[in-house]
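Good morning,

Attaching, inline, the backbone tokens for the sequence recovery test we're adding to the shared suite. The designed sequence is right after.
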């Protein structure tokens, strides 16, 4: 089971894992985080750098702009007029964007390397019954179950 850890799907994955292990004794269920696409991962790593740079600019812009040979732009003064509000906004929006970029929204179920169910494709979670049927149809039939009928006859 691959799931989006940042979307808090771990609890659902644990429930599905217990159900599968109970329904199919001896099955080995592996839980794994489904990472977001590479561009989203890179952008989520850049956001804290941008946040720190923006806060540093708000705090020390009076020294930064002259050293770069620039006159501080008018927007700098309007942002600096309310330093706390500006920094809080930068921090909140940055954290929201980072959280969004780190989530994949995935709950993918594989059986023997084959994709059985995809929340990304279906836009929904599988029910326990549906998942049990999907996995059960892909597992090899147990020799114990086949021979059980012969021993009772």
């Amino acid at each position: 089971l691959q799931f989006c850890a940042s979307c808090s799907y771990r609890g659902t994955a644990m429930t599905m894992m217990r159900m599968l292990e109970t329904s199919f004794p001896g099955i080995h269920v592996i839980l794994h985080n489904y990472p977001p696409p590479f561009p989203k991962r890179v952008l989520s790593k850049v956001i804290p750098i941008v946040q720190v740079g923006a806060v540093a600019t708000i705090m020390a812009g009076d020294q930064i702009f002259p050293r770069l040979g620039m006159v501080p732009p008018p927007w700098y003064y309007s942002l600096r007029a309310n330093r706390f509000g500006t920094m809080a906004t930068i921090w909140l929006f940055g954290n929201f964007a980072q959280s969004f970029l780190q989530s994949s929204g995935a709950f993918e179920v594989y059986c023997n390397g084959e994709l059985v169910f995809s929340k990304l494709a279906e836009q929904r979670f599988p029910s326990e019954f549906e998942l049990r049927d999907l996995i059960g149809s892909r597992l090899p039939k147990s020799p114990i179950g086949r021979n059980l009928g012969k021993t009772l006859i």
